[in-house]
Amino acid sequence: MIDIRGLTKRYGRHTAVDGLGFTAEPGRVTGFLGPNGAGKSTTLRVLLGLDRPDRGRALIEGRPYSELRRPASVVGAQLDVGGAHRARTARAHLAWIARANGLPRARVDEVLERVGLERAARTRVRAFSLGMGQRLNLAAALLGDPRVVVLDEPVNGLDPEGIRWMRSLVRGLADEGRTVLLSSHLMDEMARIADHLVVIDRGVLVAEGAPAELTGGHPSLEDAFFALTTPTGGA
Ligand SMILES: Nc1ncnc2c1ncn2[C@@H]1O[C@H](COP(=O)(O)OP(=O)(O)OP(=O)(O)O)[C@@H](O)[C@H]1O
């Protein structure tokens, strides 16, 4: 479970996240949505111990990231595409991460298979398409068989077939009882993938609930979002 409570993060005089609170429950895919600059990455960075909050807490399985004993076995995360040494093969890249985190080498082939990269195991990362890079990131996130999975913009760069594949993969992870948190600015795509949506804008929560509930009488979630956030008399 992920529990964000009263989270505030400022950069100088700019408040990127302002008193944000929500939970992501096990067995459920939670979509964390908002336009560019809404504060999603800031929230995830604090959650994953890469940044310190000014106020509030961001807990994973009841603890801040810094207090997790074997973090790679608790939370799998990939914040952006990249990070892989481009001259390494996919398998060597994952083996390096496994070693750095004290994870069994046998997991490498398991996760390659899970993300459908078994035939690209010996391909160098520099030859990967964006979609293959997304799969490799996901494989890295799953290496520690974590109970909590956090993915930033997981469908970016995927073609329709890749998006369908990602949808069924994250569904499988949630059905196994894991907590899955996906951040994205692609509202309508997330409305199809997630069971529960958390929508933020300018660092504050603007809506939370099941996709159908949030879409309400609007043609799409994106329309509902603009109706929520566009000031009366606005565009
Ligand atoms: N290190 C930083 N220093 C100063 N301002 C920052 C920093 N990181 C983020 N911000 C600002 O905080 C706000 C929230 O940014 P954040 O990256 O969290 O948004 P986001 O929802 O993830 O957007 P995107 O989808 O574009 O990544 C933005 O106004 C951004 O300019």
UniProtKB/TrEMBL annotation:
ATP-binding: present as a keyword of the record?
A: yes
- Domain called ABC transporter: residue spans: 2-227
Highest taxon of the lineage: Bacteria
Pfam families from the xrefs? ABC_tran
Q: Does the keyword Coiled coil apply?
A: no
Name the family: Belongs to the ABC transporter superfamily.
Protein name (record): ABC-2 type transport system ATP-binding protein
Q: What is the lineage of its organism?
A: Bacteria, Bacillati, Actinomycetota, Actinomycetes, Streptosporangiales
